[in-house]
Amino acid sequence: MIRDLYEVIFRRRDVRAEFTGAPVDPAVLDRILTAAHAAPSVGLSQPWDFVVIRSPRIKEDFHHHVHTERDVFAATLTGEEKARFDRIKIDGVRESSLSIVVTYDPARGGPSILGRHAIADAGLYSVCLAVQNLWLAATAEGFGVGWVSFYREEFLSGLLGIPAGIRPVAWLCLGPVSHLAEVPDLERHGWRRRRPLSAAVHDDRWGA
Ligand SMILES: Cc1cc2nc3c(=O)[nH]c(=O)nc-3n(C[C@H](O)[C@H](O)[C@H](O)COP(=O)(O)O)c2cc1C
C-alpha cells in the first residue's frame, strides 16, 4: 500500500502529447474528483470548485488563447533558447478527453478563516493541494493530467462565466494516455533539469 503511493508519486507526469482522447468513465471521474475534494484546506474552507469542460467549442477558444500567450512568451526569448522552446508542446487541450478548471473562492467560509489571518495565500495553497490530489488520483487510475497556465485569468473567467472574486487557478487536461513518459518533457528537450534533493534540503538554517 505504501509502495503503491510512492509508485504513483514517481510515475506521475505532466502530459501534453500522450493523450488518446478515449472517453472517461463517469465513475472514474467521480473517484478522481472525490480525491481532489478530500484535500486539506486552511480552516476547512474547501475554497475550490471544479468546472468539468467537455465542450469542443470552449476547448477550441481556450486553445486559441493559449497559443496567443505562447507567442507572447516566445517573443521574450532569443537564440538557442527560443529554438528549444519552439520544439516544446505546451498543452493537450485539443487531444485530451476533457479538461477541469480548478477555481479559488477567497470568500468561501466567511471572513474568519482559521489559519489564514496572517497568510492570505493559505487559501491558494489549499487549492493547489486539491490539484495535487486530483493529479495523483488520475495517475493511479492510469490517466494523464497536464496543467496549462498559458492564459490570462480574465480571459478564462469570461469564457467559463466564473463570477467576479473567484479566481481560476488551473486548467487541467485529463484523460487516458498511451503511456506516461519516464522523464519530464522539459528535461527531455534540454530546457531545464531537475535539481537533486540534497540541494533543496537545509539543516536548521537557510544555506546550511
Ligand atoms: C503551476 C504549474 C503550471 C504549469 N503550466 C504548464 C503549462 O502551461 N504548459 C506545460 O507544458 N506544462 C506546464 N506545467 C508542467 C511543468 O512543466 C511540469 O510539471 C514540470 O516540467 C515537471 O514535469 P513533470 O510534472 O512531468 O514531473 C505546469 C506545472 C505547474 C505545477
From TrEMBL:
<dbReference type="InterPro" id="IPR012825">
    <property type="entry name" value="BluB"/>
</dbReference>
<feature type="domain" description="Nitroreductase">
    <location>
        <begin position="10"/>
        <end position="175"/>
    </location>
</feature>
<keyword id="KW-0285">Flavoprotein</keyword>
<keyword id="KW-0560">Oxidoreductase</keyword>
<dbReference type="InterPro" id="IPR050627">
    <property type="entry name" value="Nitroreductase/BluB"/>
</dbReference>
<protein>
    <submittedName>
        <fullName>5,6-dimethylbenzimidazole synthase</fullName>
    </submittedName>
</protein>
<dbReference type="InterPro" id="IPR000415">
    <property type="entry name" value="Nitroreductase-like"/>
</dbReference>
<dbReference type="InterPro" id="IPR029479">
    <property type="entry name" value="Nitroreductase"/>
</dbReference>
<dbReference type="Pfam" id="PF00881">
    <property type="entry name" value="Nitroreductase"/>
</dbReference>
<keyword id="KW-0288">FMN</keyword>
